[in-house]
Amino acid sequence: MIPVNEPMLGKREMEYVTECVETGWVSSAGRFIEEFEKGWAAYCGRQYGIAVDNGSNALYLSVAALDLQPGDEVIMPTFTIISCALAVVYMGGVPVVVDCDPGTWNMNVDQVEAKITKRTKAIMPVHIYGHPVDMDPILEIAERHGLAVIEDAAEAHGAEYLSGRDTKDSAWRRCGSFGDFSCFSFFANKLITTGEGGMVLTDNAELATKARAMRNLSFGTKGNRFIHQEAGFNFRMTNLQAALGLAQVERFEEIVERKRWIGAEYNRRLSDLPQLQLPPNESWARNVYWMYGLVVSEETGFDADKFGQALMQRGVQTRPFFWGMHEQPVLQKKGLFKGESHPVAERIARQGLYLPTGLALTEEQLIEVCEVVHEVLA
Ligand SMILES: Cc1ncc(COP(=O)(O)O)c(C=O)c1O
């Protein structure tokens, strides 16, 4: 079977992890944490990095550090991972969702402004499957309405966005450099993996200090360390995890290049199939193809589930697309999204899946995947 993801770890990872074991620095202190934070923040063009135990908690920490109050609203795409909505719900806040853009599968930025109310506190754009959200309008709306921006770049390490594209000041910026906080995941299927792990990036010194404290139970800083002024969390990353992460930051250009090669090869070998919508690559974006997504036309008689089964029978593992937040029983039971319909997200949730895209995918495996896709759709 060709797995949907297989990570690729190297000698440097082994060397750094061995150093942790040999020196005993295996917990949440040690040189790799700071070096990983600094290295990744610098790559993304940010001032501060705060490493955490996973990407879901990176989002939770951001929302908490922005001091979200019960009833406060955060606008996000319905088509995303549940971590986005739960981060808000955990704080007593209200996730408010918009549909997707049918071309990019990212949040439809034209729907955002109409969702703003007196309770709106933040916008949470999510770069889906490695393709940037159109950030300029989001940042402009946020600024005009005094809203925070929490960028979820968990799937978009190294992706780039052309900001100010119609102006003489246009410039490519990396995902992870936008808004008050940017959040990453370093789960095993991400472009950088620490097994489990995440990071929050910011340019705001005050927010960085706050998030850093909250990551570590907000221990007292004046006098007795065990007298706490705030409700923090234990979201600490270990030095062992950071050792893995740093090794990959050091060869990150190679990782991005490999992902882009996978994306380009799939594009080349599948573009003759009109039954498939292939991943986007807008002129103002540089996709990193975190996962190579497909939307299969209803006319084939397949939905994502049946298509995935047919591929699996021929030895190709896939994963279905996200299921919209507005269709999540756990959120509906909380009284959220009553009567809401978001037709684009509903369609792609039912018709979309992604193909094997892990860094360890070989050219032979990729060719085989494409042959199997052709065979199933023939
Ligand atoms: C867009 C997005 N945000 C957040 C997360 C959460 O990251 P983690 O699995 O590390 O908790 C993921 C996980 O895949 C994700 O895809």
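^ pyridoxal-5'-phosphate complex. Residues 55 and 185 are 4 Å apart (CA to CA). The chain has two domains: 11-250, 252-377.
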